[in-house]
Prior knowledge:
- The structure is a single chain.
- It is built from three helices and eight strands, in the order αββααββββββ.
- With 150 residues, it is an alpha+beta fold.
- The chain has a six-stranded antiparallel beta sheet. Strands 6-7 form a two-stranded antiparallel ribbon.
- β6 (133-134) and β7 form a beta hairpin.
Amino acid sequence: MHNLIGNAIEHGEGKPVIVSVDSNESAVALSVRDYGLGMSQVDVNHVFDRFWRADPSRKRTIGGTGLGLSISLEDATVHRGWLQVWSSPGKGSCFRLTLPRTARGEITSSPSPLPPEDAGSDGTLPRLTVGEVGRAGVKGAQHGEGAIHD
Length: 150
């Protein structure tokens, strides 16, 4: 959570950062939404890669190595959870961490929407689900309508 919130503050361009928590019968979700620059789909495809930064030349305000999101994804996986991202240039980003309610539980759906409800309803916003854990293990990145499993 610390990494997700810190990134939202750093990349949020001084605009609001919203942290929300919700739950359903199978899961608890924490979403961190910023209204900063957002990322292109190309950037979103690499956001969980080790040592990767969206803009390595940008002045950094809180430091960092480019490892935070990859470690966050590993932590989510260890706990049988999902770490997912939605982002759109000019509209900001939303990272959603969904964890099972019980140690041996399985997530059937996330209680928090992704894309976030305030992202717009034009249907053309980029979507990406990364690190979904299920019986088959960790799946790679998937694009398009089928990528969001709510």
